[in-house]
Write a structure and sequence with these properties.
Layout lengths: L6 H6 L1 H13 L6 H10 L4 H27 L5 H12 L1 H14 L12 H12 L3 H29 L2
Helix pairs in contact: 2-3, 2-4, 3-4, 3-8, 4-5, 4-7, 4-8, 6-7
Length: 163
Amino acid sequence: MGRLPDLSSIAAWGLPGLFLVALAAGSVFPVPSEAVLVAVSLATERPWTAWAVATVGNVLGAATLWTLGRWAAAGSSGPLARWITRRKEANAERFLRAQQRLSRWGAPALLMTWVPIIGDVFVLAAGFVGVRPVPFLFFTTLGKGLRYAVVLGSALAAAEAVR
């Protein structure tokens, strides 16, 4: 596995860099979007704008994974569909639990999409089981937005404490 890029250089890209990192983190790439959120937020006078940008980027990244799940569930073929199927099979136990939770609790189970690794499985499972777009976006945005709010609020409080 390659080295991660220097977060300070990504943070120097500002809000566009934060959006791209959050977008990647919301899909299947393990990128530390929280660290970039904190770096960009501490460098701006509008940290909650950074929160909004990160949340939107992360939800859009999740929406791409949800869309791929819907697409694969519809019986699509080709290399991408095979990759999705392999990913589902590699995480079969997690995927099954996510499907069961989605069946039991419905779309509110998507509040768990913020949890690393498990969240991606929930998003993919939501696509496979056919969670509708509006509930998907609502609960995914709520879960991911709350996570970023906790991270940002903690970072801002810590920064204030050391001043």
